[in-house]
Amino acid sequence: xxxxxxxxxxxxxxxxxxxxRRLLEPQCEIVGTAGDGRALLDIAxxxxxxxxxxxxxxxxxxxxxxxxxxxxxxxxxxLIFLTVNEDPDLAAEAIRWALPATC
Length: 103
What we know:
Radius of gyration: 13 Å
Number of strands: 4
CATH superfamily: Response regulator
Helix content: 40-55%
CATH topology: Rossmann fold
Mean pLDDT: 87
Largest sheet: 4 strands, parallel
């Protein structure tokens, strides 16, 4: 049986969460969804996902700050950021957090 990666989805837009869930479920095990950064940290601690798809702009704790905490707590987790923001500095910062500490 093929390994299905354990994925956690985090975005404050429910329609996007639902769309990503439907898109990824055939190939991935969706271990949870979060609508804000603080919920993301709690759910990640409880579910230990391999991959986290997260929005950069979320309430209660934005995706960049959540990524910083996730990187310290779960250094092996893979982070995939979502955003509609076109700021190249924001994109560069997201890439720095998305890369494992060993890169």
